[in-house]
Amino acid sequence: MFRRLALIGTGLIGGSLALALRERGEVGEVVGYSRRLETRLAAERLGLIDRPADSIAEAVDRADLVFLATPVKAMDAVLGELAHCLPEDALVTDGGSVKGAVVERARTHLSAGQRARFVPGHPIAGRERSGPEAATADLYRGHRVILTPIGENRAEDVARIEAMWQSVGARVERLDVAHHDHVLAATSHLPHAAAFAMVSSLARLAERYEVFRYAAGGFRDFTRIASSDPVMWRDICLDNRDEILVMLDHYRDELDCLREMLDGGDGARIERYFQEAKAVRDALYPAAEANGENQRPAGREDRDVGSTGETGD
């Protein structure tokens, strides 16, 4: 059990963790700080935190667990301030969806001793709504949380963060920092970029109003994640730019292949192409269902996709 949890970011991701830990008796007091006063007050009113703090320093005072639930870009300033006020015995973890950028910023600002207590993480869960009002105690139940320990971490500290996530029903796995960013570029960042691009491409058609009027369920499902926060996804794309560029090139190659088949009128080849893709997709989701995962994408970085773990609050 943690005596005091400091939330830096009191929206969906941070607030849901606080609710889940409190529901299971895994935390005593919860103190929260968000950049906007109205967000902090809403988190207190909704019972996500016991009291709001007016600064990061006030929030982390006497905390033994600090959870960073801010956009990755914002962590540069957050870690810079945290370096001057982090209690000596406090563990720190985060919910950012790009780990390389977070670790780089931690190495820039935190001392060696502080870095040793910082265990980077990424909860792959989210919702289409954001903010304190969207927080729920069961957000992480049955979802994966990826920890990306760094060389300075002690095994016992990593194990404690892992146990914390397991206590709220998450399925914890560990990945290397670089491998995490490579995998998430493919499974989360590319799908979001593709969804934004699809909506943008149709919006530029002369007959766009008619196109959108007759859009069916497939269009809605494919483009759902394009309703995610544009600022957050701008930052994710920039922070994981190199990996996303690789995946965009790979995806473009597949689109070019499909175009070639269509241009040649090769129906047999198109059918084989679609059959192969269908077999892969159908093989993935029954396996996920057997493991207790939700079949519908999780929302904001679905945070599985959308599920970035980030909030702009």
Structural overview:
- The chain has 313 residues and is of the alpha/beta class.
- The protein is built from 13 helices and 9 strands.
- Strands 3-2-1-4-5-6 form a 6-stranded parallel β-sheet.
- Helix 4 links the parallel strand 4 and strand 5.
- Helix 4 packs parallel to helix 5 and helix 8 crosses helix 12.
- The longest helix has 27 residues.
- The C terminus is likely disordered.
What is the fold's blueprint, element by element?
Layout: E1 2-8, H1 12-23, E2 27-33, H2 37-45, E3 51-52, H3 56-60, E4 65-68, H4 75-82, E5 91-94, H5 99-109, H6 112-116, E6 118-119, E7 121-123, E8 144-147, H7 155-167, E9 171-174, H8 177-203, H9 208-213, H10 217-223, H11 230-239, H12 241-263, H13 267-290
Parallel strand pairs: 1-2, 1-4, 2-3, 4-5, 5-6, 8-9
Antiparallel strand pairs: 7-8
Brief write-up:
This protein has helices at residues 12-23, 37-45, 56-60, 75-82, 99-109, 112-116, 155-167, 177-203, 208-213, 217-223, 230-239, 241-263, 267-290, and strands spanning 2-8, 27-33, 51-52, 65-68, 91-94, 118-119, 121-123, 144-147, 171-174. It has 313 residues and is an alpha/beta fold.
